[in-house]
Write a structure and sequence with these properties.
Layout (H helix, E strand, L loop, with lengths): L4 E3 L3 H8 L2 E2 L13 E4 L4 E8 L2 E9 L15 E3 L10 H6 L1 E6 L1 E8 L2 E8 L4 E10 L2 E10 L10 E3 L1 E2 L4 H6 L2 H5 L10 E4 L23
Parallel strand pairs: 2-5, 5-11, 6-11
Antiparallel strand pairs: 1-3, 1-8, 4-5, 7-10, 8-9, 9-14, 10-11, 10-13, 11-12
Length: 218
């Protein structure tokens, strides 16, 4: 699964990598947004969507609520790659409302006795998580798609978020559903994973302490 991630990359670099323009609500930030070390469900996340034929970077709320839902409590933070095209919760969004969710690391936890030791997974540069978005009564929400873990991720968990290659951004955002489905597979480029402080275990905690080495807070 994917329940926490980081985004510490400067805004201008994200716009360049994703070939996107800022949506109106972010324009006041110019080229800066605060680095985020512990992005959690129900919070706003940056996402790239196709808007009037152009890639736009804006905010979505993490936890997808389908347009037909009667109660926003149905919000779901992850969607499984093997059922995303057919499950009623996601199939409409998968067909026509796919998005890229920028990140530069994601967390997973290894249970050691009664303790949960967090690990931070990184690729050495910003990357795109495969996402879906919906519009529920004016509230734009999103979910992150997960797939089977690659060998490194499988050392801790049997699933991982779908990380898209830069060459596949266009297909994911604007391609036909059949081609997009082919991209939902374990990440096959080099990754690293290392222990970080349990400070990140509390979703209310923020700041560089979250990615510090264990027992070595800044």
């Amino acid at each position: 699964m994917c329940a926490r991630f980081t985004l510490r990359t400067k805004l201008n670099l994200l716009l360049q990598q994703f070939s996107a323009e800022l949506q109106h609500e972010l324009a006041e930030h110019e080229n800066e947004v605060p680095p985020r070390y512990n992005i959690a469900p129900s919070q706003e996340v940056l996402a790239v969507r196709m808007v009037d034929g152009r890639r736009q970077l804006g905010n979505l709320q993490w936890g997808l609520v389908p347009s037909w839902a009667k109660d926003p409590k149905i919000a779901t933070i992850n969607a499984r790659a093997d059922s995303v095209a057919t499950k009623p919760m996601f199939r409409s969004a998968f067909s026509s409302r796919r998005c890229l969710i920028p990140a530069d690391g994601y967390y997973e936890w290894l249970r050691v006795g009664k303790q949960r030791q967090p690990y931070l997974y990184e690729t050495g540069r910003p990357f795109a998580l495969a996402g879906l978005w919906e519009n529920w009564r004016g509230l734009k929400t999103c979910t992150i798609i997960t797939t089977e873990a690659n060998p490194l991720a499988a050392e801790i968990h049997d699933r991982m978020p779908v990380i898209l290659h830069e060459s596949d951004y266009g297909t994911w955002l604007d391609g036909v559903a059949e081609d997009a489905q082919e991209l939902l597979k374990p990440y096959d480029d080099p990754m690293t994973a290392h222990e970080v402080s349990t400070f990140v275990n509390n979703s209310r905690h923020e700041g560089p302490e979250c990615v510090a080495l264990p027992n070595r807070l800044f």
